[in-house]
Structures are given as structure tokens and as C-alpha cells.
Amino acid sequence: MRLTEITPAIPLTSLDGRYRKQTLPLVEYLSEAALNRERIAVEVEWMILLANGFPENSNRPVVPGVKPLSPQEQDYLRSIVDGFAQDGIARHAAYEAKTHHDVKAVEYYIDDFLDASTGTLGAQTQLPRLKTLVHFACTSEDINNCATARCIKKAVEQVWLPAARRMTDFLARKARDCRDMPLLALTHGQPATPTTLGKELAVFVHRLRRQIRHIEQQEYLGKINGATGTFGAHTVACPDVDWIAVSREFIEHRMGLTFNPLTTQIESHDWQAELYGSISHFNRVCHNLAVDAWMYISRGVFVQVPVKGATGSSTMPHKINPIRFENAEANFELSCSLLDTLASTLVESRWQRDLTDSTTQRNIGAALGYSLLALDNLDGGLHSIHPDQTVMNSELERNWEVLGEPIQTAMRAQELQGRPGMERPYEKVKELMRGRQIGKSDVEAFIDSLDFDEATSERLKSLTPRSYTGLARRLVDFEAPQDETEHNDLGLPQQ
Fold first, then answer.
1. Phi, psi of 54, deg, nearest 5
2. Which pTM does this prediction carry?
3. pLDDT tens-place string over residues 32-51
4. Which end of the chain has fewer CB atoms within 10 angstroms, the N or the C?
């Protein structure tokens, strides 16, 4: 049997198949059905504004000859949106099959409900006579740009941002609880000045929250100004109407978007490029975090919690593979590739209009879907690891040479104070420590060979690789302040 003949239909992509559970919330806002539902909402709210004017229910129609809609008629129109479900999706699809035009199909779909309104509202309703008010003076892009912006805004604010905040907040709690855990830093893959695990995690929290703030402040622009952005048909049909004011009212107060007064036939999509750039940047920071976590696991700094019944390798029973972090990496990369393409292509249009943006924007759901899937994997991975302080302390104990930095810096300070024998501090420490494995006794002997003042000598001798972490624990407070009363939910030992 051919797979294409199986019902229900087998999904083509993993987002709607293997990973449907993780990406399902985006269906509510970024699926084709969600877009059509939002298109219906735009058409309905435009009708209500034209019939009732503004402020809300002022009973001064924008279009002469139209009677204001009653509250019952307005409720009926809005119920078309609320009732858009499986039957509605099929009916819209049938109209689109005939018209080969998705927005025209929306118009005909609404017309059906206007014809049927007498059954609910009685023969006195004017709705059947108002078919010509549907899509009045609009081009398809007037409807599409508003519907798309509202879909994306809801998807980001209701689904993506909560997932991003949830993962970042957990990382902040992990940073706080690891604030005092000394960690051997590696720069260029080589032992370097020690830090704390909490401070290194807090660096990622700081980076991620900056991008979250950018995304939270994102504008979502909209326009409703006709075929080439001139209100041409509007002013010919109704010359006494302030169409710019009507447009602003609709975009800002009825659609909840930012008014864009200057467009071609399409809204220019610059805000989309800004948004996708910020989300792509967030993805890349997360990718960096996933790679670092993977390498910390490989190094033994983090230990993975075994999942009962899970198989790490088909042939090596001992393995617990860091697959959540690997899956996160791959899906962040896929998301970034789509977001970067969207950001670079949507800002261009041939003269006043071409249709490349229409098909391109149908991939917004996939772009955010891969990011959401990656966030789910990264969050799950972070929940499944805990630090191994024995490994961390062992690494530090094997690398006393990292104290070369504070010793030579103290020598510089002593030389500046006129202390003899402190010249060429960098070179002297380099001669002792570079390319050699040394221990505590070697460090103490070197300190004793120099004429440090007593306080400096004692301060240097008291240093160990574990204690040489500077202000790392205090730096964590910038993103994960200590709260003694908060429950430790990370499975870490209390410090």
C-alpha cells in the first residue's frame, strides 16, 4: 500500500509528526487554518468599524448609507470567527478550490453567514444586504498583513516567549545554586583563571534575557490603505471621510497593531525582519549553551540523570548520551536558517508588489516550530543534569599553574610600589609555569623566592585554584540574586 493512501494523512515533516506534541501550541496561531480564522476576524472588524464608526459604537457610520449594526448583529458577525472550526475549514477550502484565491474565499465564506443571519436575528436584520461592505475598498494584502501580524504576535507572546522565559528562568535558578562551585575555566581549550559554574551559567542568562527584552518590545505593524497604499478607491467612493484616521483607528485599536502610514501594496515587513533577527540571535545563544553543556558533560563537570528504561546505545549498554542537547543544537540551526531567510527576503518586493512574500510567510510556523522544539529539548536537558563537584575539584587540583596570573599581577603592583626584585614579572612566572605541571609546594617556593611584603605573601600563599575565583559569586547576583527563603528545586546540595 502506498503511504499517500493511508488515512489520516501521514505528516511530511517531523514538526507535524514525530514532534507534534512539542509544537502543537503553535497550530493555534501559525497554521493555515489559524491564518484564515484571523482573516475572517479582520474582515469582520473592518465591517463593524465601517458601519458603526469610532469611537466604539458611536453610531456614526464611516460609509454613508449604512445603518449602524446593533449589538446583536455585531455579536453575530464575531461569532463567525469564534465558530470557525472543522466544517468552516472545509467550506473555506471548497471556495478556495473554485476561486484559487484564499482571501476571496474568506469573503464568500462570510457572505454565506450574512445570507443565513435571518435565521438567527430575524427578517429585520440588515446583514444580508451588507455583502458589499465585506472587503470594502480593500486589497487582499490589507487583510493578509493584519491577519499575519496578529497570528505572529499571538504565537510569540502566548507560546514562544513563555517557553523562552521558562527555560531561561530555570537556568537562572541553576546559576544561583551553582554560584559557589569553583570551576576550572578553559580558554582556547587550555586551563585558565578559575571561575564558578554559577557565573558561567549566569553569563548565558544575561545574554538570553537581553534578547527576550528585545522581543518583548517588538512592534507589530499593520496597514489598511488599498491597492498601492494611497487610499485611492476609498477617497473616490467616500471623499468626505478621513481615511487616514479610519485606518489608524482600525490598525491600532481594533487590530492591536502599530499603524504604518507609508507602504506600497504590502506592509513592508521590516518589523518581521527585526523580530526574526532577535529570535535567531536568541537561538544562537541557546545553541552556544547547548554545545557548552554537551562539552561539560563530556568533561564530567555535569552528570546526566539516568532515565529508567531508556537506551543510550544499541550496542554499548553503559552509555547515557546527551541527546537532548544534540537535538537542541540541530533544531536551533534549522530555525535560524529559516528565520534568516525570512528576515532577508521579506524586506524586498518588486516595485509596488510581488507575491514572493506570500509563500515565504507560510514558513513562519516552521521557523518558530523548530525553535520551540529546540527550547523544549534544551530545557529538558538542563533539568536532567547536575554538577559533579568531585570532578571539578580534581581538575582544579591538577592545575596549580593557573595561579601564575595573580602572582605576576601582584609582582607588577609591588614593582610599581618600588619593591626590589619584582622586575620582569610575566617572564619570571612564565619560566616557572608554562608547559609544566606544578603543585602547591612549587607555588609556595616561588612566592618565598621573591621579596613580597608580608601581607601580599600571605595573601598569595592562601590562594588555591579553588579559591581563586575573584568576584564570580557576586556577579551571579546580576541575573540570579540569592534568596535564602526560596526552595532549592534543582536537586543540588545546599552550599
1. -150, 150
2. 0.92
3. 999 999 999 999 999 999 99
4. N
